[in-house]
Amino acid sequence: MSMKNLLVVGVGGAGAQIAGQFGVRFGWPTLEINTDSAALKQSALDRQLLIGFSVCQGQAANTPMRGRLAAQESLQVIQSEFDSENVLVLVAGLGGGTGTGAIPVIFDVVQSMGVNCVAALTLPFEHESGRRKIAFDALSELRSRRIAVFVHDLAASMENKNLLDAFQGAAEELAEAVNASLLEFQQAG
Predict the structure, then answer these.
(1) What is the pTM of this model?
(2) What angle do helix axes 98-112 and 12-26 make, rounded to 10 degrees?
(3) Residue 120: strand pairing partners
């Protein structure tokens, strides 16, 4: 897997925040995909893509089903964003709407295009039990698609940390894991 034309894609709000850390740490180009137009206007990522306007009206998806429908509505636009990429890192926080619902759809699109892809994902905190169930279901679905998945469980990282440190630690751990994997693939290829 060559790192030429690599793009880090933050899907949803949590994914965009973590993708931004990847960009800062390694200088990788970044793209935010979101249903929330207000979040995109404030995005610090290199590029932004609004999806699912008919489904979400420029608002947060709130459920994985709406996130999935938003991605399905915007398949052609998503595909056109990736026509010159050969490696994608899809980044999302699982358990919410946009990232959880859109990631499987986006992966299917890029896989059909022959684009190499890995996913860097976070799981919700322990006290978010409903979101954790949704997240584990989504993780199982992604793993069934044979995508290389790197996961950081926020519930396991909270010991002796505040919320900001937990998110920062998740971004750092995922960035290092993805970078090591990409370097390994590059050396093998």
Answers:
(1) 0.93
(2) 60
(3) 91, 150
Residue pair 153/167 in contact by the 8 Å Cβ criterion: no
> Coil, strand, or helix at residue 37?
helix
pLDDT in tens, 84-116: 888 899 999 999 999 999 999 999 999 999 998
Beta strands of the chain (E only): which ranges? 6-11, 30-34, 47-50, 87-93, 116-123, 148-153
Specify the pLDDT at position 164: 76
Looking at the predicted structure, is the pLDDT value of residue 17 above 70?
Answer: yes
Distance between CA 36 and CA 13 in Å, rounded?
8
User: How many CA atoms are closer than 13 Å to the CA of 181, on its beta-carbon side?
Assistant: 18
Of all helices (H) and strands (E), which one includes residue 30?
A: strand 30-34
Cβ atoms within 10 Å, residue 89: 27
How many C-alpha atoms does 1 have within 13 Å on its Cβ side?
20
Are the C-beta atoms of 10 and 35 separated by less than 8 Å?
A: no
